[in-house]
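Bug report

Summary: structure tokens for ScyD/ScyE family protein differ between web form and batch submission.
Environment: batch mode, default settings.
Steps: 1) Submit the sequence below via batch. 2) Compare with the web form result.

Sequence submitted:
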Amino acid sequence: MKTLVLKITAPICLLLLTASCETELLDTNNLSADAKVAVAAKHASPGPYTFNGAVYDISAAPDGSIMVGVNGAEGRTLEVIKNGQVSTMATVNTSTDIQGVASIGSGNAFVTSAGSDLALDGALYKVSNGTYRMVADLAAFERNNDPDAFFGIQWKDQLCEAIDGFSAGPQNNPYKVASSGNTAYIADAAGNTVLSSSNKGDIDWLAILTPPIDDNGEFLIRWNAGEEGEIDCYAQPVPTSVAIDTDDNIYIGELTGALGPQDGVFPIGKSRIWKIKSGENNVVLDQRTSSQDYELLIDGLTSVIDIEIGPDGMLYVVELDENSWMSLLGIPGLTPIGGTISRYHLDGTFDAAITGLSLPGAITFDKNGQAWVLENLSSVRMLDFDVEAL
């Protein structure tokens, strides 16, 4: 699975809550903390804010602003929504699109750029005070290591990448990014890995993800490579997103690539959420085995595109569309029917969900605990989870 260009579809009808446009000053000195949060939410503009370019991620900063990575016709920028206004934080002249965005303070962020065939592009950048610099050459790491092919259980043969217009060899697509202290964690969707990088550019693989399994506990085979079809090529897990809880446990969400014709092609219900224990490294996430280092937290999901730990300590999971990402490819008989944001306890127990969202791509929470959601690769708005989940 490589960089996925999504077709924008007509928005699905939503319950959109709007805040008051009144601007009179309120005396908040005698209000409780909860009341002050409510006032702040009321007087912030809920959006939607629509951007002229593809957006793959959003991230809230400590000052209450929302960072938005925009890939426009005239360049790539990191935009900021603050106090109802949008301004440019920095221009980021990367060779490929900005994908992941992770705030590391007001005016500072990690961003990732997309990969390309044979891992010729893709990097981690730090944006600060209107400037940017490359922190880690993630493409070079993939070319030199290709962990899912040459480390761990070595489940992927490089010849298996020669499908869907790509070449046999290393492949990468750095997607969402999260940070803890001085370390960034990057979900490499085409590399089937989660990478870690220090702020000095020291890269390692935190986790290798393995293919989904069938009812017999075997990896799902998509196709066969080699002169005589002797090489099994498996459905790819495609990690898209990373979240970190207050105990430094790491959560990973999967999109899941196309299946073989014998398994129905469309990867509906094949996406998973993994949980890696704090302090672990070089972990192979394999559903066929058990380990003290990690656990399969949630399965049966479809096209997970983002995950986030909310201010309530719950895990929020964004599924792009109930018919999978393949519903966006114009396949006859398979059309988008709406995405979902679900809330789970950190033990994987389901709590609540909003369905029927229009291509939800990312979620973040501002300093007041207010959720914001990206939809249709271009539109950002506030989301009242508890109201819209009713």
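Above is the batch result. After comparison, the two runs are identical; trailing whitespace caused the diff. DSSP finds four helices and 27 strands in the chain. Residues 135-364+376-382 form a domain with the Neuraminidase fold (CATH 2.120.10).
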